Amino acid sequence: MATNAVPQGPTDADQQASDLCRSSDLLVALVNTRASESGRVELLGDGAGLARWLTTNGLVDDGVSVTNGDALAAQELRAAFVSLFRSHCGCADAPVDEAEAYLRDIGLRYPLVSRISADGYTLVPAQTGVPGAFGALLAAATDLAARGAWSRLKICKNTSCYGGFFDKTRNSVGQYCSPACGSQMSMRAYRSRLRKSSSTEAVGTSPGH
């Protein structure tokens, strides 16, 4: 039986780390369903694709009805998260206001309820099926925000990657999802400087100078 619950509340250190990883891994997996120049393919292009992704991530049971309209809604939700994750990297052009307004609306559409126990509490979607799955994604975001880790979800600044990642650097200053992406961008910047330098030298040595 699939569960949409995202554990929260005070637990021991190991459980907290596990819950943090589940929440961050789920949202990183969502934003990385986008196609990219680096070879990622679109995974939420239709209802069948969304059904596979939701089932794989334990958000719905096999056989739950998933439509193409649901896939479009998932893409919109994903785009809102991407905008906020880009803002966490300092991207000034990210449409943050629109994304925040959209997520506020979605929060009303897919509400969460608090399930309290002796060990703490769990945010559980009030709905089941695809609406419950969308609610679980919102619960994951809420979980990370409550733990002070929300701003660590980012989009890689390598223009051919743009993959989502959880920044594990001490001061949350990471800009790339991997050392390879960082090296690739450094090499591009180096080559760009060389081209500019060569162009400047060519102008300086042209006839009439």
Automatic annotation (TrEMBL):
Gene3D superfamilies: Jann2411-like domain. InterPro entries: ABATE, ABATE_dom_sf, Znf_CGNR. Pfam families: ABATE (PF07336), zf-CGNR (PF11706). Residues 152-193 form the Zinc finger CGNR domain. PANTHER family: BLL6575 PROTEIN. This is RNA-binding Zn ribbon-like protein. It comes from Actinopolymorpha pittospori.
